[in-house]
Amino acid sequence: MNPSAYLQFNGQCAEAFAFYAQLLGAQLGEHHPASQSPMADQLQPHQKDWTMHAQLHWPNGQVLMGCDALMGPYEAPRGFHLTLNRTSVDEARALFDALAAGGQVQMPFEPTFWAAGFGMLVDRFGVPWMVNVDAPTAA
């Protein structure tokens, strides 16, 4: 089994997924605009360009899915973080900085007692992230 996350956005799903694809090396998969759905006539005018369903695919089979909050009020994500684990501190810091741009840093990226580098943030789309580089293991 390979669990995946399904993210919900406040009208920014297409923009967020394009950003994540470019930054994280994923391919944009399915994208279903709300305006082309059977429920298009029930949408508010500002929702016509929103996303009903989108997917990102990585070469290793990982999938991230998402949509915009079409059926009710948007609620910011709570109780989880998407996690990026890298082996290079420099690569992890660059990812952290890119995700943090326009967002909110919850814990700056820096060495910790458990990691060569670790940081937490909420990106400009409202998605919480942790970026981690494991500490070197003793040989």
From TrEMBL:
InterPro entries: Glyas_Bleomycin-R_OHBP_Dase, Glyas_Fos-R_dOase_dom, PhnB-like. Residues 8-130 form the Glyoxalase/fosfomycin resistance/dioxygenase domain. SUPFAM superfamilies: Glyoxalase/Bleomycin resistance protein/Dihydroxybiphenyl dioxygenase. Signal peptide: none annotated. This is PhnB protein. It comes from Inhella inkyongensis.
